[in-house]
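hiii, so i know i said id send this last week but things got crazy w the move. better late than never?? heres the sequnce for the chain we talked about at the cafe, plus the structure i predicted for it. fair warning i was half asleep when i ran it
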Amino acid sequence: MPMEELNRNLQELHRRLEGTVSIDPATRESLKELLKDIERLLETSPPAKPSSVVAELESHFLQLSEEHPALAAGIRQLVDGLNSLGI
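okay and structure toks below
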């Protein structure tokens, strides 16, 4: 996945997170911080490769997949994109 597309997916996930009102505050904050961490990773060249970021995203995906399928789909796209970069 090209870096441009990954950045678009990241921004879309930010929008989906902001538009999801029924998510608990702790999960929302955790995801916001995780997305900020990913943005910082992607700013390095080549992107840094901490495995914990993808593991945390996977955890959120599993947690949100039933109640927030659109948000979970965005997380899945981001995970796939990060995996394609070897992150």
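btw The radius of gyration is 12 Å. thought thatd interest u
miss u guys!!
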